[in-house]
Amino acid sequence: MSEKEFHYRWEYDLRADPRALWPLVSDTNRFNRDAGLPDVARRAADAEPGRAPQRRLRLSKLGVGVEWDEEPFEWVRPFRFGVVRRYRTGPVAEARVSAELTERVGGGTRLVYDVTARPRGALGRAVIPVQVGRVSARKFAEVFRRYDALALEGAAAGGDAGAVASPLGASERALLEALSGRLVAGGEDAELVARLRETIARGDDLTLSRMRPYALADAWGATRRDVLELFLRATRAGLLDLRWELLCPLCRGPQQTAETLSDVRAGQHCDSCMIDFEVDFDRSVEVVFRPNASVRAVEAREFCVGGPQVTPHVVVQQLVPAGESRTVRPQLEEGRHRFRTHAHAEGVSFLVSREGGDTLTLRAEGGGLGVGEQRASTRPAVTLFNDTDGEQLFVVERAAWGGQAATAAAVTALQLFRDLFASEALRPGDRINVGQMAILFTDLRDSTRLYREIGDAVAFGAVMSHFDVLREEIAASGGSIVKTLGDAVMAVFPRPAPALRAIINAQGRLAAPPAGARPLTLKAGLHSGACIAVTLNGRLDYFGSNVNIAARLEPLSTGADCVITGEVRRDPEVSALLGDPASGLAAEPSEARLKGFDDERFELWRVKRT
């Protein structure tokens, strides 16, 4: 300890390895809560030329307000992170906090937690040794030991890490039991309902204020779609509330919350990244849940707003002064990554593979990012060069979105969602990009002759039964019927392979119906591509060139096949399906011009059973 600063260094030998500990230790929002720190409020910060954006935050403890400017967190996943806070008010003038996780020989982790605090006046010199040196030291040790046990148990970050004794009163618990019982009586999986019931009863407010069905499915070892559909039914039953979060394309953090799709606005702004962006259903809109207030009231509070787990796709974030460089060694996953800075948000990409180079150079220059196409190994030495005249925040992130977000594109494509939330639609006149969707069109062959041969009443019954078969197969494969047009159907799926399976199964069932029913021939066409979502006749609908292409394919089908485009054929899952002899499917290539696209010849394939 010097005259000007207090310095504390705590070392912990933990049993779990750094990769298992990282999601827990680096979740600074949860850690600050668990360590007994007060919640924080955001304030508007002043922009400083030549510096990375900072956050201004405020808290109150024992009636004393404390306000500070916080630099962006720096980290190298999964080994270390840190932050600098400069206080505008209160007994502390500046604080620097860092954590470093080092793998121990023989297993486990050496965790070093370092705090340096510069006091402001006599009050600071009196408060810091007590609050940091004694109170925080004791709480930090307790929290890290608990996280170590959770990491060894395989607990997922954001799952049960902060579980507490049930805060429910008798009436709330009775309602929770009653609604859970109704879900089980309605056919829901009893084990999944029990997991949801216990999560609501015992989970902490941080977990319950933003329940992500895919994240909980992974933590429970359950199928993601099963948990998502359970959450949708639980919402309709009054156990949960659903809302939509609009995510920034850079930091991927929620910038707005909408109670319904009609509240979603395409144009958004991210204060952290200082960008305007247009939302789209497959990346920027995520569905999340919380308990209905009648079952359990949940208070959403923030205890830290910028730690590494706020942006888990970011593997490196470093502040590099003008004219300087820094070398770090992160752990990278195989696949496409992106490098950007706060001043060059568009970024450039590079590929990570086991065969990649052991060194990687990422450079920010006055005219942009001076990086050519590079390949890096999974544990490279990454050198960050700042050749600009201002401070730069360097960011290296996984390019793939994927992750644990249940996106609006996937949710709105579910038949169950359309059945339970038929009124969920965009504001009339609004349109939002959806991204990649598989679009299926079908139509009964010779349906006019069918009405003539067997009579209107019998034929109508056969057509309605064909809709039931289509609905069953489409819903079972994760898609939904958007609309019917006479005897024709338009359906959408998040991915083309399940769509192809659904239509092939439906064609087979209709061609070989139960005894006494008339065989039906179903023509089908399938295309995959980006489209836009709009509201038509009070329901969510899809439009765009790719929808038009899909609609032109069905007339080319004989009814014994499904006509697909080259985009569908090249999808990895479709390629694997068609290449598997056990699938019993074959694809024959062809070409054709489509109505309305006279200047283009399309690569088409006829998929049918062998």
Question: What this model shows, in words?
Answer:
- It is a single chain.
- This protein is an alpha+beta fold and 610 residues long.
- Helix content is 29%, strand content 36%.
- The chain contains 16 helices and 28 strands.
- It has a 15-stranded mixed beta sheet that branches. Strands 21, 22, 23, 24, 25, 26, 27 and 28 form an eight-stranded mixed beta sheet that branches. It has a three-stranded antiparallel beta sheet with strand order 10-9-13.
- A hairpin with a 2-residue loop joins strand 16 and strand 17.
- The relative contact order is 0.08.
State the CATH topology of the largest domain. Alpha-Beta Plaits
**Secondary structure tally, helices:** 16
Any guess at the CATH architecture of the largest domain? 2-Layer Sandwich
What would the principal axes of the Cα set say about the shape?
globular
Total number of domains:
4
| CATH superfamily label of the largest domain | Nucleotide cyclase, GGDEF domain
Q: Round the mean pLDDT to the nearest integer and report it.
A: 90
Termini separation comes to: 79 Å
Q: Provide the β-strand percentage band.
A: 35-45%
How does the major sheet shape up? 15 strands, mixed
What percent of the residues sit in helical stretches (DSSP H or I)?
25-40%
> How many beta-strand segments?
28
Quick one: CATH class of the largest domain? Alpha Beta
* Structure class: alpha+beta
Low-confidence stretches: 156-163
- Overall radius of gyration: 28 Å
